[in-house]
Amino acid sequence: MISVNDFRTGLTIMIDGQLYRVMDFQHVKPGKGAAFVRSKLRNLRNGNVTEKTFRAGEKVEKAQIDNRKMQYLYAQGDSHVFMDMESYEQTELSSVQIEEELKYLLENMEVYIQSYQGEMLGVELPNTVVLEVKETEPGIKGDTASGGSKPAVLETGLVVQVPFFVNEGDKLVINTSDGSYVSRA
């Protein structure tokens, strides 16, 4: 068991038989009344995001998640095939399980597959990925680095706001937690 006062982003907990990952949390100490913790939780089985409030000091069960390093091989219909880097064993995950992560996945990318008691839950991406710009408006001479942004379509189909100087064919570093542009690669 773990106290809600010890919440941190990325922690996996069990509530009423469901697995949740803490996406965001905030300790609130109102002037009148007891302190509480407001949290944003993602259900690891179906991907739904819910907001839940806990009393300060309340206990929840911590879930032990196993991470295995695997390589993303290819998409086959509605499923995606991953290979264990040590045993060469292949595992399939459905598009529904990794819907958000698909925006950042490229073939041959190394990721961690998360499982709980043998049940495959999803993919843990690296903090940043390098993706190529497939479509964007051309940069205009005189545009500055701090002058604004324009949309760019990346090779995985993800649309990101980028500075005006970014052109088609550029490789960009993208933050996987919020899908934002970091820098050119």
UniProtKB/TrEMBL annotation:
Localization of this protein: Cytoplasm
UniProt superkingdom: Bacteria
One term under GO cellular component: cytosol
SMART domains (UniProt xref): EFP, Elong-fact-P_C
Domain Elongation factor P C-terminal as annotated: residue spans: 129-184
Domain Translation elongation factor P/YeiP central: 67-121
CDD domains per UniProt: S1_EF-P_repeat_1, S1_EF-P_repeat_2
A Pfam family it matches: EFP
Pathway assigned in UniProt: Protein biosynthesis; polypeptide chain elongation
Any one GO BP annotation for this protein: peptide biosynthetic process
Mitochondrion among keywords: no
InterPro entries: Elong-fact-P_C, NA-bd_OB-fold, Rib_uL2_dom2, Transl_elong_fac_P/YeiP, Transl_elong_KOW-like, Transl_elong_P/YeiP_cen, Transl_elong_P/YeiP_CS, Transl_elongation_fac_P
UniProt keyword annotation of Iron present: no
Annotated keywords: Cytoplasm, Elongation factor, Protein biosynthesis
Gene3D superfamilies linked to this entry: 2.30.30.30, Nucleic acid-binding proteins
GO molecular function, one term: translation elongation factor activity
UniProt function note: Involved in peptide bond synthesis. Stimulates efficient translation and peptide-bond synthesis on native or reconstituted 70S ribosomes in vitro. Probably functions indirectly by altering the affinity of the ribosome for aminoacyl-tRNA, thus increasing their reactivity as acceptors for peptidyl transferase.
Entry's family note: Belongs to the elongation factor P family.
Name of this protein: Elongation factor P
The gene coding this protein: efp
